[in-house]
Amino acid sequence: MKRNILKKKKVRVSLTVILLICLMFQGYIWWIPVMTEAKTSDAIIVLGCQLHGEIPSAFLRERTLKAAQLYKQNKGKYIIVSGGQGPGETISEAEGMKRILLQEGIPESSIILEDKSRNTNENIKNSKQILDKMNLKSVIVVSNDFHLRRAKVLCDKNNLSASYSGVFVKQYIFKEVYGAIREMPGIIKDVLFN
Question: Any idea what the Cα angle at residue 57 is, between residues 56 and 62, rounded to 5°?
Answer without folding.
Answer: 90
